[in-house]
Amino acid sequence: MAHLAAWTSTAWAGISTSLSETSSTQSVSCARVHLEHWCRMPRMQRPFTHRLRFNHEDVMKNDIVEAPQGAQLLFQTRYVEMFGVLASEAARRGILVMIACHRINKDAWPGKGLWYDEALNFPEKRVMESWSKIAGHLCEHWNVFAADLQNEPHASSWGKGLASDWNKAAERIGDHVLRLCPRWLIMVEGVGFTPGAPGADDPGAGYWWGENIVGAKVAPVRLRDQSKLVCAPMLKTRRTYIPPLPRNT
Q1: Domains parsed from the chain with CATH numbers
Q2: Alpha-carbon distance 134 to 129, whole Å?
Q3: Is-above-0.90 flag for pTM?
Q4: Chain centroid to CA 148: how far?
Q5: Sheet holding 229-231: strands in order across?
Q6: Residue 21 · residue 106 · CB < 8 Å
Q7: How does pLDDT run along the chain (249 residues), one tens digit per residue?
């Protein structure tokens, strides 16, 4: 049986560092800010978890990030190694880390709403290769506890028997990650309302991007180790995003 993510905002999202939609210089700047922030925070005020987000293209390139020589922890560090540095620094402060794929490349937002993009030369095979690099580098860090397979795959389907069925892709990618790091939890976000899931594909129903896990009732995700599965709908408050309301409401 899958677990449903039901942590508080501190224990679930914590602070979310996005190193997925920035240039390498901006990524280092963002990383430095969070390293310094962690150092200054009193222990009781530190978040329980921290969500680190990456993009597949930069993982595959794995270039040296443009860190100034004064940034000792990040100088001459490659993109994937940067996450290891952040994980180590988080571990020193007792912070757990979830690694999350946020997008295909830094510019692909909102993108096509799928977990792959053939037009960007990222078929599912390359997505798997990207996860191999991430898991291979981060599994050794005790405090990296989970992998969020894809942020808000809103244009995917769930349980409709289509090539775009996210539940089936989550099984393939999730099992691949578990073969590389069997101890990680596998976080599977929901889809959107189009094409949605059986009984949950009405645009008027108000499903957020990544929130719709209704399809799990008829087409549950099955992993090689089912105890590692966590259904993780992306829930937002109205302070985060106010959806357009239908006419005459």
Answers
A1: 3-231 (3.20.20.80)
A2: 9
A3: no
A4: 4
A5: 3-4, 229-231, 185-188, 144-148, 96-103, 49-55, 15-18
A6: yes
A7: 454 444 433 333 334 455 545 444 445 555 555 555 555 555 545 557 888 899 999 999 999 988 777 778 888 899 999 999 989 988 988 889 999 999 998 887 778 999 999 999 999 999 999 999 999 999 999 999 999 999 999 999 999 999 999 999 999 999 999 999 999 999 999 999 999 999 999 888 888 899 999 999 999 999 999 999 999 998 766 545 444 444 443
